[in-house]
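A quick aside before the break. I want you to see a complete sequence-to-structure record at least once, exactly as it would be stored in a machine-readable document. Don't worry about memorizing anything.
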Amino acid sequence: MPKTFDLADGASTDPTAAPVQKYASYPSLVDRTVFITGGADGIGSAAVEHFVRQGSQVAFADINEAKALETIERCGGEARHVPVFHHVDLVDIEALQSAVATAQEDFGSLQVLVNNAANDDRHSWDEMTPEYWDERINVNLRHYFFAIQAVAPAMLDARHGSIVNIGSSSYMRKEDFFPGYAIAKSGVEGITRTLAETFGPQGVRVNTVLPGWVATQRQLEKWWSPEGEAGTLETQALKRRIYADEFVQMVLFLAADDGAACTAQHFLVDGGRL
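That is the input. The structure line, written in tokens, reads:
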């Protein structure tokens, strides 16, 4: 049986925190080196925290320094490895790849990449300009590929590595209130499938994990309404909220040796919405 640990007490008072659960602890993630994009809040912050709890060495990049420092504080001073923050606008590919290079120098190598950063601001197709289209692609897709380009050579040389791309089920549900976001996220599947085939012979795995509606602070503050949540729960098999703490358990599995036979796949963590 795998070891388990409890989420922090008091989670029930936080609308973004899952009820107290016991989650698996993966021995292969102890001291594993991990780079996470968009790790300052939401799903990315949960990924940072849970990898740190596993004993991993974590570096993460984000533009929001204040939220990043809050994430580090939540990880606690007694962590086996304190996460390292890189202040980066991920639209700036040179800065992103420089942060990856610095993390590789600090850790010796990078064994896991979690491509997470995205922005789901609402917009309509008929208001789209070429400039806003480019911005949506740059924020939600382009940096995924170039982060992989930066980490993959060392993984391929080591013949071991796991790349986890965070996608979205929005395009699968034909949601039309943010077409630039949904279309960009559909492209994540193309990155995963194509590069899994390219990297597979050298032992590097590439997978996508797709959330449904996850109760993060951003979602609750910007998009939540009683009617909207009721509609979401109507379409889910599980009639409750899905939380970032729960979502990232699939990311941990794919990063660990336990997921060693999984590549070129997408995994839905959406409460049975699709």
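Two observations worth writing down. The chain has one domain: 26-216+242-268. The first strand starts at residue 4 and ends at 6. We'll return to this after the break.
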